[in-house]
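Appendix B, Record 12. Input sequence as logged:
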Amino acid sequence: MLILLGLVGCSSIETAFDVPADLRTFKRIYVQSSQNDSSHLDELIANELKRLGYDASAGVRTMMPDDNQLIVLYESQWSWDFHSYLSQLDVTVRDVRTEKQIGHGRIFHAGFTTKTPEQMVAGVLAPMFGPKKPGKPAATK
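Logged structural output:
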């Protein structure tokens, strides 16, 4: 399993790939809405995936199109320090056919200087779905 850690100020990003798959080879992704999410993170995640070049949509599991290849699940933690902010976002990627988890990402940010939910979403998705960096090996087990 490959684990990448990035530390910037008071935040950290961790991504893990559970199988030797390059998530960039998939095109159709569905973000399953979380019942506890009143901040519409599902839409933010789908919009970021679209920005990265994927055919992405979000909603409840029963509304997932039949031709989707991956499903993205997420959990969020919000904190309060004179204002509410997203302090942790966990993203799990599963193969739609097999339900097997093939990737996981987590971003954590302490509240000294807060990041927007959009920045947190972009920070956790970029290592998994963003363009390959020159000279970086493909994610392997």
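The first helix runs from residue 41 to 51.
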